[in-house]
Amino acid sequence: MNNLLRYLFLRETSTKLPLVNVVKLEGVIAPSRGVRGPQARRLISLDRVEPWLVQAFMPALKTFRPAAVAISLNSPGGSATQSELIYGRIRALAKKTKTPVYTFAEDVAASGAYWLLLAGDEVYANKTSLVGSIGVINATFGAVEAIKRLGIERRVYTAGKYKDLLDPFRPVRKDEEEQLQDVLADTHDSFKEAVREARGNKIAGVSEAELWSGRIWTGRQATLLGLTDGVARLEDKMREKVGDNVRFVHCSEPLRGGLADALGLSGNWGGFMGRQPDIYSVTSSVSEALLDEVQYRSMMARYGL
Fold it and tell me: Which of 111, 87, 103 is nearest to 23 (CA)?
């Protein structure tokens, strides 16, 4: 249906004017299987965004073959695995279709989102965008004293020494910390490899120690260091690249849903099927939506957004 509407709207000009297919990625990078409603809209995963990418690079109608694909990113990062998968899918589609890719950072493209930013043949940011954070993090908590005060006895039975790795209700063992640090270091190495492959000898003016430290830079600083290719807005840069008469075709879903979606009801509402949601499902979904809002704002607040 979307392709048909685009065809009807642009049928007189699509064969004459250059098209740029735009994909907007916003939210935390994390797996999204089984997640519904507003929670799903806040996640960037391969499952969720692959249909948009395929539509952007390989539209059903030949008249919508793009002159370029532009990807706009606004994310504090998240899953290293999902970042690697999406990066790989973008590069594979670009190679298969021989379509140039341009990536743009909005407010923030940090950590795993910077990994995604590297998927562009050319990489851009706004002057005040936050870019970088080339590092890996694993955050947990410890409640050893709290569980003692509550008089709770923790009972965990395992087959395998590390099946209860970093259990928050007991003291951390030295060998556990070392094992986790090895995993983080290896993941960090994969991130570094992606940066070296994408930016090569463009990076200058920053030491290795600082580059891999996990710190962030503004878009203007990132350009001076070679982490990005320049400071630019998506629309302006694409007009410069393909012409002032460019037409933009958005291939991703709207970032905000309707009222039912905002309340966390969209995944459970069955009115069109002649059934009503049970009160437990509605209450549970609304609670999940509120908790998701708190978690999302906490993640974005990490970068002062």
Answer: 103
**Which is nearest to 217 in space by CA: 64, 226, 282?**
226
Q: How far is CA 23 from CA 87, 140, 185, 234, in A?
A: 13, 33, 32, 11
266 is catalytic: no
**Domain definitions of the chain by residue range:** 2-133+215-301
pLDDT of residue 265: 46
Q: What is the value of pTM for the model shown? A: 0.78
Between the alpha carbon of residue 149 and those of residues 95, 99, 142, 155, 169, the distances in Å are 59, 61, 14, 16, 12
**What are 109's strand-pairing partners?**
75, 131
pLDDT along the chain (305 residues), means of 10: 50 67 94 68 89 90 85 95 96 96 97 96 96 90 86 87 84 88 94 94 92 95 96 96 93 62 43 41 50 55 54
Q: Residue 159 is which amino acid?
A: A
Please tell me which residue in 111, 129, 252, 266 is annotated as part of the active site: 111
pLDDT at 280: 43
Q: Which residue has the tokens 């740029």?
A: 20
Exposed, middle or buried: residue 301 (CB in 10 Å: 0-12, 13-18, 19+)?
A: exposed
163 flagged as catalytic: yes
Which CATH class for the 2-133+215-301 domain? Answer: alpha beta
Rounded CA gap, 44 and 32, in Å? Answer: 8
Q: Which of 96, 127, 163, 202 is catalytic?
A: 163
